[in-house]
UniProtKB/TrEMBL annotation:
The keyword Signal does not apply. This is Amino acid/polyamine transporter i. It is a multi-pass membrane protein. Keywords: Cell membrane, Membrane, Transmembrane, Transmembrane helix, Transport.
Length: 502
C-alpha cells in the first residue's frame, strides 16, 4: 500500500485543524451572537467535540491499517450490517453537499479575480450566467475526479494547500484586529460590552439563554468534519501511529481558535455598528467583515483613499482565495473519503465487480467516475432551471440534514461496546476506565440527540410540516436502501455457501 511519506506531524495537525475549523462559522458566530456565543461553544466543546475527538482517536489507533473508516469502527463494536447502513447513510449525507460546493466554487473565484461576485449578474458576454456556472462546475467535477484518481497524495496536497491559506487568513484577521486594539485601547472594553449586550441575530432566538438553544445546534456543526479526516488515517504513512495524538492536540487548538477569534473580533470592532450596514448577510459575511476590518485599519491609521481601496481589495480577494482553495480541499476529501470507505472498506461482494476496480494508484477509479457522472447530471439539471429537479434537490438536501448527524450518534454509541470487546487494546487508551468511556459516549449521544430532535422540532414549530417530515423520512429512506443492499449481499453469500457445501 502506497502511503504519504512526506507528511510531517506538524502538517498532519495543521490539516486536521483546518479541515474541522471554519472561519465562516467563527465570523457568523461573532456577527449573530457576539460574546453570547461563548457559553454555547463551551458546552459544545466539552459535551460533544472533545469527547467525540477522544472516541475517534481510539478508533484511529486501533484501525489505522484499515480502509473502511466508519465501517471498520462499527463492524466489530456492533455488526457488519449496522456498520454498512451507517457508512451508506454517511455517504448519502455528503453527496448533496458535494453538488452544492461544486456549484458555489465560482463565487469566491470571481471575487478573487475581479473583487466582486459576478455570479449575481444576469449574463456574461451575452450568455446566461447559469450556463457559465454549469459549464465551469462540470469542468471542476472532471478536473477534481481526474486529479483524485492520480492518488491519495493529491487529496493531502489539496488539504495542505488550503490549510496554509487558512493560516494566512487567520494571521491577517488576527494581526488586523490586534492593530486596531493597540491603536484604540480605549475602545476595547466598550466594544466588548457591545458584543456582550447586543441582541441575538440568530434565527429563532432572543436574549434569554434557553431561547438560544438553536445556536447550540450551530455550534455543534461548527465542530463537524472530524470523521472525514480520521477516515484517511490508513493513508497517512509514517504518521499513522501518531494520528490519535494529532487528533487530541488538534481538538484543543480548534476550540482555542474559535474562542480566540470571537474574542479578537469583539474587542476590536463595535458589533452594533457592523450590524447597521445593510450590505451584510450570511452569504457574504466573511467578505463583509474582512472588508470592514480593512476600512477600520485604514481610518485608524490615517491611510489615503487609494491605500484604503488597495487594502480593502487585498483583504477581500485573499479571503476569496482562501475560501476557494478551502472548497477545493474540502471537495477533495468528501469526494474521495466517504466513497473510499463505502467501496474499499466494505466487502467487495456487495458491489458489482466493475465498481470495486482499483487503479495503479489504489484509487476506486470506476466508482469515482460514476459518482462524477451522477454529480454532473444533477448540476446540469439544476443549472437548466429544471423545476422538478430543483424541487427534488431541495427536498433531498432537507432529507440529508439529519442523516449527516446520525453517524456521529452511532459512532459514539458504539464506543462502550468497542471497549468491552477489545480489552487488550485499552492499555494505552487516553480514556482510562470504563465509566469514563461510558460518560464520553453518553455525552456525545445526548448532545447529538438534542441537536437532531431540535432540528426536527423547529420546522414543526414554524408550521413547515413537509420539511419536518422530510427530515424524518430521509434517514429512514437511506437506511432502508442501505439495509436492502446489504440484505441482498447476505442472501447471495448464504446461497453461495449452500452451493459450496453440496
Amino acid at each position: 500500500m502506497k502511503q504519504i511519506k512526506s507528511l510531517s506531524f506538524f502538517n498532519l495537525i495543521l490539516i486536521i485543524v483546518m479541515t474541522v475549523y471554519s472561519f465562516s462559522s467563527m465570523s457568523s458566530s461573532f456577527f449573530m451572537m457576539g460574546l453570547k456565543a461563548f457559553p454555547w461553544f463551551l458546552i459544545s466543546a466539552f459535551f460533544y467535540f472533545i469527547p467525540y475527538a477522544l472516541i475517534v482517536s481510539e478508533y484511529t489507533r486501533s484501525y489505522s491499517n484499515r480502509t473502511g473508516g466508519i465501517y471498520d469502527w462499527l463492524k466489530d463494536a456492533f455488526s457488519p450490517r449496522i456498520a454498512f447502513i451507517t457508512a451508506f447513510l454517511w455517504y448519502c449525507s455528503y453527496f448533496t453537499w458535494i453538488i452544492s460546493l461544486f456549484m458555489k466554487l465560482l463565487i469566491p473565484f470571481t471575487i478573487m479575480l475581479f473583487g466582486q461576485d459576478l455570479t449575481s449578474a444576469e449574463q456574461w458576454f451575452g450568455i446566461d450566467t447559469s450556463y457559465w456556472i454549469m459549464v465551469l462546475s462540470l469542468f471542476a467535477v472532471f478536473c477534481m475526479t481526474w486529479v483524485i484518481n492520480r492518488g491519495h497524495q493529491a487529496v493531502f496536497s489539496f488539504l495542505k494547500t488550503s490549510s496554509y491559506a487558512m493560516v494566512g487568513l487567520l494571521l491577517i484577521s488576527g494581526i488586523g484586529n490586534l492593530l486596531l486594539m493597540v491603536n484604540n485601547p480605549q475602545l476595547i472594553l466598550q466594544n466588548m460590552q457591545q458584543s456582550l449586550t447586543a441582541p441575538s441575530f440568530f434565527k429563532g432566538t432572543s436574549d434569554s439563554f434557553l431561547s438560544q438553544l438553536p445556536f447550540f445546534i450551530f455550534a455543534i456543526t461548527a465542530f463537524g468534519g472530524l470523521d472525514t479526516i480520521a477516515s484517511l488515517v490508513d493513508k497517512s504513512g509514517e504518521q499513522r501511529k501518531k494520528f490519535p495524538k494529532a487528533l487530541i492536540i488538534s481538538a484543543v487548538i480548534i476550540v482555542v481558535l474559535y474562542f480566540g477569534g470571537i474574542m479578537l473580533w469583539s474587542g476590536a470592532n463595535n458589533l452594533n455598528v457592523l450590524r447597521e450596514t445593510d450590505q451584510f448577510h450570511l452569504g457574504n459575511l466573511m467578505y463583509g467583515l474582512m472588508g470592514s476590518l480593512a476600512n477600520n485599519i485604514s481610518v485608524s491609521f490615517g491611510l489615503s483613499a487609494a491605500a484604503q481601496t488597495f487594502l480593502y481589495q487585498a483583504f477581500i480577494r485573499y479571503t476569496a482565495f482562501t475560501l476557494f482553495v478551502a472548497y477545493i480541499g474540502l471537495l477533495s476529501s468528501i469526494t474521495y473519503t466517504p466513497l473510499k470507505s463505502l467501496i474499499q472498506g466494505t466487502p467487495k461482494e456487495i458491489w458489482p465487480q466493475f465498481l470495486t476496480k482499483i487503479n495503479q494508484k489504489e484509487m476506486p477509479q470506476t466508482a469515482l467516475w460514476i459518482q462524477a457522472a451522477v454529480v454532473s447530471v444533477c448540476i446540469i439539471g439544476l443549472s437548466l432551471n429544471s423545476t422538478i429537479l430543483g424541487a427534488l434537490f431541495n427536498q433531498l438536501t432537507y432529507m440529508t440534514n439529519v442523516a449527516r448527524a446520525i453517524p456521529y450518534f452511532v459512532v459514539a454509541a458504539s464506543y462502550p461496546f468497542y471497549r468491552i470487546k477489545n480489552p487488550l487494546l485499552l492499555k494505552h487508551s487516553l480514556i482510562a476506565s470504563h465509566w469514563q468511556g461510558y460518560l464520553c459516549s453518553l455525552s456525545v449521544c445526548t448532545a447529538t440527540l438534542i441537536a437532531i430532535t431540535f432540528q426536527v422540532y423547529q420546522p414543526f414549530h414554524t408550521g413547515e410540516y413537509v420539511q419536518a417530515l422530510l427530515l424524518i423520512i430521509g434517514p429512514i429512506l437511506f437506511g432502508l436502501l442501505g439495509s436492502s443492499i446489504y440484505q441482498r449481499f447476505e442472501k447471495k453469500r448464504t446461497q453461495f455457501l449452500l452451493e459450496d457445501n453440496l
